[in-house]
Amino acid sequence: MSGAERLGSVERVRAALLAASHADTITAFPESTRTAAEAAAAVGCTVAQIAKSIIFRAGGRAALVITSGVNRVDPAKAGAALGVTLARADADFVRETTGFAIGGVAPVGHLSPPLILLDEDLLKLDPIWAAAGSPMHVFRTSAAELRRISGGLAAAVKTDTPMAKSGSKSST
């Protein structure tokens, strides 16, 4: 993705935040914030405080599950909460439906409105940071604000399988 395309995605997130009466808290980092571990290191917070945006297919529509950086999403639990069957999404589907590249999927500013679900565990944390349209940008918010601006439902979505130690994608 070129610098101009990345800036366009970041500006789309900024516009969505401002339209929702959320402060512009977007920060750019010289290093990647693509994984939850990288984002936490850049921000100076715990991995749990990183809001990972995971995109699934719900038929032809995107389903966004925003989860704590230490959790893995159980697609069956998330699908049941949304009332749909979820399938893995590839990079082309993510870009076409959200307008974001993997590693920079934000919880707001999508090209087409996705179905949105928030991990209950994330709602216990404050503050939290989420991707802001590129693998080098994040924004600070609270769980309550993220729920308000995204319009997402809250549910228990984490799998009982523990995370690998190497970190996980902050956005797919």
Task: Provide a compact summary of the structure.
This protein is α/β, with parallel strands linked by helices and 172 residues long. The protein has one domain: YbaK/aminoacyl-tRNA synthetase-associated domain (YbaK protein).
Describe this structure in words.
The chain is 28% helix and 23% strand. The chain has 172 residues and is α/β, with parallel strands linked by helices. It has one domain: YbaK protein, CATH 3.90.960. The protein starts with a helix and ends in a 17-residue tail after the last strand.
Descriptive terms for the model:
alpha/beta; YbaK protein; 172 residues; disordered N terminus; disordered C terminus
Number of strands: 8
Output the radius of gyration.
14 Å
Average pLDDT reading: 89
Structure class: alpha/beta
CATH superfamily: YbaK/aminoacyl-tRNA synthetase-associated domain
How much β-strand is present in the residues?
Answer: 15-25%
- N→C terminal distance: 15 Å
Order of helices and strands: HEHEEHEHEEEHE
Fold-level CATH name: YbaK protein
| Overall tally of domains | 1
From the spread of the alpha carbons, the general shape counts as globular
Query: What's the CATH architecture?
Result: Alpha-Beta Complex
Q: Which CATH top level class fits? A: Alpha Beta
Number of helices: 5
Main sheet summary: 8 strands, mixed
Determine the fraction of residues in helical runs and give it as a percent range. 25-40%
Question: What is this structure's SSE topology?
Answer:
Elements: H1 3-19, E1 26-28, H2 36-43, E2 50-58, E3 61-68, H3 75-82, E4 87-88, H4 91-98, E5 115-119, E6 128-131, E7 137-141, H5 143-150, E8 153-155
Parallel strand pairs: 2-6, 3-5, 5-8
Antiparallel strand pairs: 1-7, 2-3, 2-4, 6-7
